[in-house]
Automatic annotation (TrEMBL):
Subunit structure: Homodimer.
Reactions catalysed, as given in the entry: D-beta-lysine + L-lysyl-[protein] + ATP = N(6)-((3R)-3,6-diaminohexanoyl)-L-lysyl-[protein] + AMP + diphosphate + H(+)
Domain of life according to the entry: Bacteria
KW Cytoplasm (keyword) present: no
Xref: PANTHER family: ELONGATION FACTOR P--(R)-BETA-LYSINE LIGASE (PTHR42918:SF6), LYSYL-TRNA SYNTHETASE (PTHR42918)
Annotated keywords: ATP-binding, Ligase, Nucleotide-binding
InterPro entries assigned: Aa-tRNA-synt_II, aa-tRNA-synth_II, aa-tRNA-synth_II/BPL/LPL, EpmA, Lys-tRNA-synth_II_C
Organism: Luteimonas viscosa
Protein name, UniProt field: EF-P lysine aminoacylase GenX
Domain Aminoacyl-transfer RNA synthetases class-II family profile, residue spans: 18-331
Amino acid sequence: MWHAAGAAMSWQPSATIDALRLRARLNRLVRDFFRARDVLEVETPVLSRAGNTDPNIAPFALEFSGRTDGAPRTRWLRTSAEFPLKRLLAAGIGDCYELGRVFRDGEAGGRHNPEFTMLEWYRLGHDHLRVADETVELVQAALALVGREASVARTSFRALYRDLLGVDPMTAGIDELRAVSGGIDIDPAGLTRDDWLDLLMTHRIQPRFPPNQLLVLHDYPASQCALAKVVWRGDVEVAERFELYLGPLELANGYHELTDAAEQRQRFERDLAVRSGRGAVLPPLDDALLDAMAQELPACAGVALGVDRLLMTMLGTTRIADVLAFDFNRA
């Protein structure tokens, strides 16, 4: 709830005590789940000298006032634990996970809070489909805490768009994608092909997902590879990544991780070019990650799961404030 200027902010929690107790039970379940699989819990820095270059993510920056011995004063609040976790993988730590806070600028209210909890883990020798199955297993265990069950479906990105919209997302041009948009009310000027694919997903496809179904959506267009490997599947290149939905809500995403440092640098630089074109801040590249990858990042797959979103589904709410002790407006 937004407060007018001068209005008193409530001192009380935004979530109920029962919801906070459920969060504690979920945290315990997560740790038990990975302990049983011999996956090590680790802690990595919240502040970094490098920021996230993803054009769709806005990182927070702050200035350190103490002695730096020549290191940069500007530090970035992490938007994910991914990069330091990969450095640990390159150092030989093996399967690992982190359950912790991450930070993203730009949105507060509804389903979004600038500070939220993310679970991230990495499994050596796995691909994206194998860690997707593990993610389903974890989410089903979490839902069982509140007596909820969900069916499971799996499909490729290509098959989903063909089945629901009659269009091939791997080969269709902008005009074809716009033709099946159903009159989405948006200014089309400047929209890219990937923008149209995203709009179709959020406006035409996700609302049709059954509410009690876990959907593993895998093998995305190569143009949406992010940090995933790109391989040929028949006549097209695909990104070996997945997203997990419960009903229309995305809970997790994962990659068969790119391990090539030179390719990773090129992707970072492409991200920065997009950010520059949008007039967005340009965070420094994570050279420590690139050095670790050049040394040898082992073959692995990784997952990021939004813990607050999972709690929201467990409680049947659409407000992230209902699962946070103190949301942005009460912090």
